[in-house]
Amino acid sequence: MINPNYKKHFPVMLPQVLEALNPEGGKLYVDATFGNGGYSEAILQAADCKLIALDRDPNVLPRADEMKKIYGNRFEFRAGQFGNFADLIPEAIDGAVFDIGVSSMQLDQAERGFSFAKDAPLDMRMSQEGPTAADLVNNLPEEELANLIYNYGEEKKSRPIARRIIENRKLKPISTTKELAQIIYTIIHPQFGSIDPATRTFQALRIAVNNELSELENGLSGATLRLKSNARLVVVDFHSLEDRIVKNFFKNQSGKKTHVSRYLPAVETKQQDVVFAECSKALLPSSEEVAQNPRSRSAKLRYGIKR
User: Fold this and answer.
1) CA-CA distance, 243 to 236, in Å (whole number)?
2) Pick the CATH number of 117-210 from 3.40.190.10, 3.40.50.720, 1.10.150.170, 3.40.50.2300
3) What is the CB-side half-sphere exposure of residue 154 using CA atoms within 13 A?
4) Average per-residue pLDDT for the chain
5) What is the C-alpha separation between 69 and 44, in angstroms, rounded?
6) Is the pLDDT of residue 93 over 60?
7) pTM given for the model
8) In DSSP terms, which residues pair with 121 in a beta bridge?
């Protein structure tokens, strides 16, 4: 039995995720980013295994309850941030999967404020706790705001965007996604067929509000601690900042040579420090998937097998 909403939220690169994770009967897996349960349901259907799902978003609870009714003791949900993986999952596990970034469910809920395509309060909090994106936009000093947009959004026009935000918030607080997007459009004009000019700034605010990059680093480390020998860690990410962290994490944990400086020789990890016996190169979605689900176009999948 599959939730009728399951087909509406395409789990990105699902065939590749299942092949990389290779779920087997009687084993224990973790879906560190439950969302709408696409990966969780597919894993439970692929093998007679047990799965623990994690998510910080309280809005996923009805879907988790539904999964519990379908799969019984094979499914368990634990509320929390995957950055606290090692605390949330004290058990030794046979595999874990991470789908990094904002979920389709969060994007589709206009009131959450993740998407500039839908007018809504400027929120962006995955856990619905703590400072909102509006708090950052209306309170950060200009230089700090510009640095945030540049570092987390890789937006080359971060300084004029920050300056224009400051000018507008002096007149009235910036409280909605549409207001912020319109401010950005005065600096970078939308062009047909090009990425929306608000994309990078919205990404930067979302990453900052949810502390996503630190969460990712902590989550990967915590999951690796809990992996059994020959267990698998699978990660799907969507932009260069995330992918750089994932790529370097696997590289550093697999004993591959890493160049710290062009003036120094490459340093190779000692064999006793190697965690992953095998790590994949970046895998990309098929052209058919991108055509069917445009949100998958920037996805990359990497996985490692613990030695």
Assistant:
1) 9
2) 1.10.150.170
3) 4
4) 88
5) 13
6) yes
7) 0.85
8) 176
